[in-house]
Predict the structure.
Amino acid sequence: MIDIENSIMATKQGFEHSFSSGDFYNKQTQDERHLKNILDFLPLKADMKILDLGVGSGYLSFPIVKKYPTISIIGLDIVEKALEVNRLKAKEENVRNISFISYNGIDFPFADSEFDMVISRYALHHFPDIQKSISEVSRVIKQGGFLFISDPTPNANDTSRFVDGYMQLKKDGHIKFYTEDEWLQICGKYELQFKKSFDSTIRFPKKKDTAYGFDELLKKHDKKIVEGYELEVVGNEIYVTEHVNNILFYKR
């Protein structure tokens, strides 16, 4: 049984540390080609109101609001330090159609049917009560609105969930990666229907000194499963390649 409050606190503390490390966090998460593919994929229209769930550094939000000045975005996150940096960036760059709000990681501080779209990139695997979170997502989306999820997924042969064990080596609140079928099942419960998708990959480093128990983890899993993630140790960094689901849902 997951202790939801402790999990949220672990995520908050882990990401406060990650954001303070700056360049290394960017090295882990930024991918200009992926960003372009997402922006081309999203059904963006003038005057939309969008919620960026787990907004982080605003990696998706800032390009959207700069390209579409009549779209407004609210970035929601539990990591206040990241939100402070985002607010400063918006002020410095004179971006007025974006704002940032912190919350408790459970209940969304918004009215029903407030948004035309909810977007979330590389965040949902940290959410300890995914059913509650997706129910909140559905609640705040207008009928006919959209949900876009971009999040890594386990390899098809990873029946022992090596990848989740690997991600949990860093104590930052990772819960699990979901398959596309799992997303279809979860979202389907809350009036969110599959519309379209595309696949991508992410290859990123983890500092070995934050990967507590790495050698022991390798011994627990079949070598072929581990090799499927193209795992490589370079100095003090461990690299893996993960497949990513990029899925668009619409609310019936």
